[in-house]
Amino acid sequence: MKSTKQPQPTVFIIFGGTGDLAWRKLAPALYNLYLDGWMPEHFSIIGTGRTQLSDDQFREKLLEGIDQFSRSGKAKADQWAIFSKNIYYQVSDLKDAKTYHELGARIESYEAEWNEKADLIYYLAVAPNFFPIIADNIAKKCPKEGMDRTRIVIEKPFGHDLESAKALNKQLQGIFDETQIYRIDHYLGKETVQNIMAFRFANALLEPIWNRNYIDHVQISVTEQLGVEDRGGYYDGAGAMRDMVQNHILQLLCLIAMEPPINLDADEIRNRRVDVLRSMRRFDADAIRFSAVRGQYGHGWIEGKEVPGYREEPEVNPESNTETFAAVKFFVDNWRWQDVPFYLRTGKHLNQSASVISIQFKNIPHSIFPPEAAENWQQNRLVFSIQPEMSIRLQMQAKRPGLDMTLNPVDLVFDYSGTYHGKPPEAYETLLLDTMMGDQTLFMRSDQVEAAWELIMPILHAWESKKSLSFPNYPAGSWGPENAEALIAQDGFHWFTLPVNGKHG
Ligand code: NAP
């Protein structure tokens, strides 16, 4: 496919070019953008890191990543040969001023060769403690006259708490305009997540029932079978609330709960998302006890394989108080959603990996059917499966064929793989293209990040100030701690079984 719109000439600088993110996500995404005709005629990708590599060695490393992780499969030699000519590597230490002078000189040399000015995208694929150092150095040492063509992409985590997020925002906004700052939450780039907007706002059918009059409650589950793997060092200082709820899950909630925007302008949509965060009910100490549950996995079994408990994982404190599971009940206090509970749960080493949003509608007001007709009665439910299954299902009651009137639930299904051919773009493709195009719709604005932190800080304070005596409180391979069941059961509900390979349990 050849695109109709094309980004400006671009120099793409990846700080952390030798890291995991660049290898698994960024290089495959840029390569697929190139294959699909989205890259500008003139572009350069400069990776940086302390590892001693030549340009060719760096290209080889990225090719390995592309061959393993690209949705389009292994790179073809002729296409790779053309694409890889645009890739360079610079050995450099982020703390050394020389790094930025050298980058500046490279940028100027590409622009001279192309005889045109380029957009400069600095991608910070490094540990968060480097974010302020890099931003400061870009401002001081990189070409001054290129500042208005500069964009800076910041990976998660954006801050460790409200205070540090505010400090980072303040620092970045002292150097860049907000329109130049791209805070990534890669969930927003996922095809299925973007489709929530399309589904809600391109269909007249849903809006009249998308409110407290018809919706009983909402469940958002983002569950992982994987444990912390080799990220114990990072994760032990973060936990499930910071790693998943503050960013990905609250953004999913915003897409479900937001008011219709008047158009697709980035700030219009981001205003509507931030309105949701601002409307969410705050937690006091009592509310936290009844509205939030934490868990930590102990030793257990995942698909027949024995796995250690969290406290035995590498680089994890053997007495760690870090939660690997969180379930929270939120409310959005506005006309549309007053008193509709939004239940969120996320965790590591759970029974299954899936990201699913379920909208549970209220029951019919009066049944004309005898009780025996409804063998398996289920209120209508709309289920957005984000991953691994990519589908939208509307669960209805229908008559089972036969001479008697027997009702059972059936699914009206929109399944991506059955409807469209080929694999949809990866989230990072969408987000990198948007960065090149200067479209910030799918990126987090400073006020969104801060509003999300503000909301969860009381829970974090409560959990951090009081060590859990029950950890570990769920075995790896289970569905989390019993208290998470109680959290939802106290309101008369239960966690829904998640769809697996087209089946709904
Ligand atoms: P990583 O594999 O540990 O890579 C870190 C990178 O930083 C390496 O390229 C390393 O290069 C470079 N680096 C470290 N110290 C340096 C220094 N003093 N000077 C120059 N370069 C230095 O980390 P990652 O997994 O790619 O993650 C990068 C960022 O993305 C983190 O903020 C992470 O939270 C975020 N993130 C990652 C993922 C993911 O899937 N990996 C997902 C979401 C967010 P050398 O070793 O060559 O110096």
Automatic annotation (TrEMBL):
Its EC number(s): 1.1.1.49
Enzyme class: oxidoreductase
Catalytic activity: D-glucose 6-phosphate + NADP(+) = 6-phospho-D-glucono-1,5-lactone + NADPH + H(+)
SUPFAM superfamilies per record: Glyceraldehyde-3-phosphate dehydrogenase-like, C-terminal domain, NAD(P)-binding Rossmann-fold domains
Residues of the Glucose-6-phosphate dehydrogenase NAD-binding domain: 13-195
Residues the entry annotates as binding NADP(+): 50, 93-94, 156
Keywords, ordered alphabetically: Carbohydrate metabolism, Glucose metabolism, NADP, Oxidoreductase
Domain Glucose-6-phosphate dehydrogenase C-terminal, chain residue ranges per copy: 197-495
Annotated residues for binding of substrate: 186, 190, 224, 243, 348
Pathway: Carbohydrate degradation; pentose phosphate pathway; D-ribulose 5-phosphate from D-glucose 6-phosphate (oxidative stage): step 1/3
Gene Ontology biological process terms in this record: glucose metabolic process; pentose-phosphate shunt, oxidative branch
Residues of the active site: 248
One GO cellular component, as annotated: cytosol
Listed GO MF terms: glucose-6-phosphate dehydrogenase activity; NADP binding
Listed Gene3D superfamilies: Dihydrodipicolinate Reductase, domain 2, NAD(P)-binding Rossmann-like Domain
Classification via InterPro entries: G6P_DH, G6P_DH_AS, G6P_DH_C, G6P_DH_NAD-bd, NAD(P)-bd_dom_sf
NCBIfam families: PRK12853.1-3, zwf
Family (UniProt): Belongs to the glucose-6-phosphate dehydrogenase family.
Function as written in the Swiss-Prot or TrEMBL entry: Catalyzes the oxidation of glucose 6-phosphate to 6-phosphogluconolactone.
Protein's name according to its UniProt entry: Glucose-6-phosphate 1-dehydrogenase
Organism: Larkinella knui
